[in-house]
Design brief:
Belongs to the ribulose-phosphate 3-epimerase family. This protein is α/β, with parallel strands linked by helices and about 220 residues long. About 35% of the residues lie in helices and about 20% in strands. Bound molecules: ribulose-5-phosphate. Ribulose-5-phosphate binds near residues 31, 143, 174 and 195.
Length: about 220
């Protein structure tokens, strides 16, 4: 099964985002970090900027909403044309209704879990989502260290996906490098967000190829 590599725009040059997209042509999608300085202590940008990125990006947008009140804001990102829109379980009021609203608007629906959030309440509703994002750092900043303590959660998810046959991608985000990607792939991830490991490389596309090759031999079919 192929490994999907989605570079995180958080580590890109914010003054030159359009040209930065041209440095990651070998990626599967661009991971767009939306932070509101409430749900997380950092701030990036919102729907207006994401809509413009959607217009100029040669890659699909994998939007990650680290914001309060995603029930209100997430559908707009789907309407803007995002390939996937992932919101946080800790912030959503009605996660199933919101996932359905995203799908109705043509986006893949994603559910994200902070490192301390248990996965058990969501294992019986996997069919409602197209992607589960297991955060492997506390959300908010790039360049943090991968938390191996999140791997048992990923293993439980991968087991549930295999057992139920749900068609759900398992994404990890935070501290992904050529080394940690092996650990996450072995635990069951198939979609990998990497910020600093890609954008801090001399040739980001080479870093993407390296990550993909490292993960490919370890990614399991569901
Ligand atoms: O969502 C994020 C932080 O909340 C970023 O996507 C993530 O941290 C990627 O950066 P890096 O690969 O450098 O850890």
């Amino acid at each position: 099964m192929p490994a999907r590599i989605n570079p995180s725009i958080l580590s890109a040059d914010f003054a030159n985002l359009e040209s930065e997209l041209g440095r990651i042509r070998g990626a599967d999608a661009v991971h767009v970090d939306i932070m509101d300085n409430h749900f997380v202590p950092n701030l990036t940008f919102g729907l207006q900027m994401a809509t413009r990125l959607q217009q100029v990006s040669p890659l699909p947008l994998d939007v990650h909403l680290m914001i309060d009140d995603p029930d209100r804001w997430a559908p707009g990102y789907a309407e803007a044309g995002a390939f996937s829109v992932t919101f946080h379980a800790e912030a959503a009021q009605e996660p199933i209704a919101l996932a359905r609203a995203l799908r109705e608007r043509g986006a893949r629906a994603g559910l994200a879990l902070k490192p301390g959030t248990p996965v058990e309440p969501y294992l019986e509703m996997l069919d409602e989502f197209d992607q589960i994002l297991v955060m492997t750092v506390e959300p908010g900043f790039g360049g943090q260290s991968f938390m191996p303590s999140t791997m048992p959660k990923l293993t439980r998810l991968a087991d549930a996906v295999r057992r139920t046959g749900a068609d759900v991608w398992l994404q990890v985000d935070g501290g992904i490098t050529a080394e940690t990607i092996l650990v996450a792939a072995e635990a069951g991830a198939d979609t990998f967000v990497a910020g600093s490991a890609v954008f801090n490389a001399d040739v980001p596309d080479d870093a993407i190829a390296g990550l993909r090759a490292a993960a490919a031999s370890h990614v399991h079919g569901h």
